[in-house]
Amino acid sequence: MPRIIGCLAILSFGLAMHHVAAGESKEDVKEALQALQDYIGSWKGNGALESDRTLWKENTNWGWRFKGKDAWLTLDFPVSKHFKKGEMRFLPDKEAYQLTLVDLKDKRLIFEGKLKRTTLTLERKDAESKETQQLKMNLAGGGVRSIYTYSVKPENRTLYSKRWQVSFTKEGESFGTAQKKIECIVTGGLGTMPVSFNGVTYYVCCSGCRDAFNETPEKFVKEFLNKKKGK
Fold it and tell me: Rounded to the nearest 5°, which phi and psi values hold at 6?
């Protein structure tokens, strides 16, 4: 009997630790995605093919989405040569980012990779061509500019060949105003949209944060005020 009780105690402890780890991973996800906070907003840019320098217009919008304790980033492309939409998630077990893009033919392309300083390098192996496709994303100009570079590496090759690159500028910002001024009450990013609670105005960075705030404003106001007190 004591042995059975001991085993049950160990099992209960293990389950409890599993729930703690699961809860912590949710916070890890949001914290990891906050490293990409400067992408939140609307961007306008120009793309260029590496082969003949053909140019095209490219627009994209980044935003937050929340469901329960889960969090991820969304992308949509109002104007694009390649994509319709996408979402960025963080995978705690791999300590990696996962970007799922939907191209103009509704094909899902899943890239995975890691962030080093200001450069996010994501890769996928294409089942048809057997080539490795790479998407590099980096910020410049204090978060006012972003650059996406798409390269491929044929099977049994070691070097990547650049196919195209898109250079974006964030809408509503310039190099002289790149510093953050108003903090998003939900994610800590740059607040651009006003929201209110009990007659007090706060700011959020995107429609996803606005919806999350409107669902549980007391929670975010309490966290925001506690954070301010701790500074």
Answer: -65, -40
φ, ψ (nearest 5 deg) of residue 35: -65, -15
User: Which among 115, 168, 175, 121 has a CA at the least distance from the CA of 145?
Assistant: 168
State which of 130, 153, 176 marks the end of a domain: 176
Instruction: Point out which residues pair with 170 in neighbouring strands.
Output: 43
Tokens of 205: 């960075």
Closest CA to 183 of 159, 158, 209, 157: 209
The distance of Cα 69 from the centroid of its chain, to the nearest Å, equals 16
Same domain membership, residue 194 and residue 117 = no
50 is in which domain, residue-wise? 37-176
> At residue 6, what is the residue type?
G
Mean pLDDT, residues 177-206 taken together: 87
Question: Average pLDDT of 105-119?
Answer: 96
